[in-house]
Design brief:
The complex is a heterodimer of chains A (281) and B (84).
Chain A (H helix, E strand, L loop, with lengths): L3 E6 L3 H5 L8 E5 L9 H14 L7 E4 L8 H5 L9 E4 L4 H18 L6 E5 L2 H5 L1 H6 L3 E6 L1 H8 L11 H14 L2 E4 L8 H14 L3 E4 L5 H8 L3 H17 L4 E3 L2 E3 L1 H16 L4
Parallel strand pairs in A: 1-2, 1-8, 2-3, 3-4, 4-5, 5-6, 6-7, 7-8
Antiparallel strand pairs in A: 9-10
Chain B lengths: L1 E5 L6 E7 L4 E6 L2 H18 L5 E7 L4 H18 L1
Parallel strand pairs in B: 3-4
Antiparallel strand pairs in B: 1-2, 2-4
Helix pairs in contact in B: 1-2
The chains are: A alpha/beta (281), B alpha+beta (84).
């Protein structure tokens, strides 16, 4: 479970050596768009060496590899041998890419006796968005990440502050994730100097059901956490509900003037689970 | 012919490698007065791990950590091997 994932270019030593001090829930080391074509080998080797020798790491480690059909994918996947990778982020994911990647991963896992690799699929074109349900059903997939920059480019529309153009793809990702019990992760907000815009964008995504958001700069993490963490008031409310359930063994009761039943109790428990995970209790 | 890897950005190093009749290691580092021996050792060990000798290695270091130096030397060697 995350609230925030921070993209870090895998070829940037300054960012790598600080990766464990950023207060995000996970770091995505990027071998794809953030690395120039001539620097892919440099980035891959630096990341591998970092992961095998650094004394400290971020809480959760993700790697965005290059496209499944690119010339770089086989060498990128060798990073799994470090045993440090929690998730592979799959760019331009669709069913075909997932099928090929699954085959490559099974061969690697057999060869090097690795655990099953978990995937976060980046849906950033119309095919990926249309196939969101099928992609979410794949057993390796634990989350879908919306990539709005490439998507709006393909659709020849502009990203706006209001974000109306993202209502459909955000909803599509949210429903696909929710039906499979996996995590929906929102696209990054690309104007790193616009703090209010970021807050608004987080709110819009959360209202539609997104559970987490990606960041492209460490300064965005705090604002993302403010929106995607349960508030103090909500945590207190959840504590109150769960306390009555546990101490009085009731499953249908009134609390603070409102009726509490099974779905509300489950929601309260989920809030406390999140609060515990994010050190908010 | 020379092969390069890395950059002159802060916390990185630029490694240049070329064939030679013997192995020489030259270090130009902003923290050389403190860490010359460790940097030298990282370069020397990486050359040994990759079974490379008879090369001139120049490392222009901007405060890179040990693993960055090793990674950049290794990539310079790989690039050399690709071309030879």
């Amino acid at each position: 479970m995350f609230r925030s994932l921070l993209f870090i270019p895998a070829n940037n030593p300054s960012m790598l050596q600080n990766a464990d001090i950023f207060l995000c829930d996970g770091v995505i080391f990027d071998l794809e768009d953030a690395v120039g074509l001539d620097e892919k080998d440099n980035a891959r080797d630096l990341l591998n060496t970092y992961l095998t020798t650094s004394p400290s790491f971020p809480k959760t480690i993700l790697v965005r590899v290059n496209g499944v059909f690119s010339d770089f994918i086989d060498e990128d996947l060798i990073v799994l041998n470090t045993g440090k990778i929690d998730y592979i982020v799959v760019p331009k994911a669709d069913i075909d890419a997932l099928f090929i990647l699954d085959y490559k991963l099974r061969r690697l896992e057999d060869k090097y006796h690795l655990n099953s690799t978990k995937l976060i699929c980046l849906l950033e074109d119309s095919t990926g968005i249309n196939q969101a349900n099928e992609i979410a059903m794949h057993p390796r997939v634990e989350g879908l990440l919306l990539g709005a920059e490439d998507l709006t480019k393909e659709l020849e529309i502009e990203r706006t502050t209001e974000g109306q153009e993202l209502i459909f793809p955000r909803s599509k990702v949210v429903y696909a994730c929710q039906s499979q019990g996996i995590l929906s992760i929102d696209t990054p907000y690309t104007d790193i100097n616009d703090v209010e815009g970021l807050s608004f964008d987080c709110q819009q995504a959360k209202k539609l059901g997104m559970k987490a958001k990606t960041a492209i700069h460490p300064s965005q993490i705090d604002r993302i956490h403010q929106v995607f963490s349960p508030t103090k008031e909500v945590i207190e409310w959840a504590k109150g509900v769960v306390s009555i359930v546990e101490n009085e063994h009731k499953t249908l009761f009134q609390f603070q003037g409102k009726m509490i039943d099974k779905p509300v109790i489950e929601r309260a428990m989920k809030i406390l689970e999140k609060a515990k995970l994010f050190d908010l209790l | 012919m020379m092969w390069k890897a890395g950059s002159l950005e802060s916390n990185d190093c630029l490694v240049t490698i070329k064939k030679s009749s013997q192995t020489t290691i030259t270090i130009d580092s902003i923290v050389g007065h403190l860490f010359y021996d460790q940097i030298y050792q990282a370069i020397e060990e990486t050359l040994q791990e990759e079974n490379v000798d008879q090369v001139d290695v120049l490392v222009r270091d901007k405060g890179a950590l040990d693993y960055t130096i090793r990674a950049r030397v290794r990539v310079a060697i790989k690039r050399m091997r690709k071309d030879v």
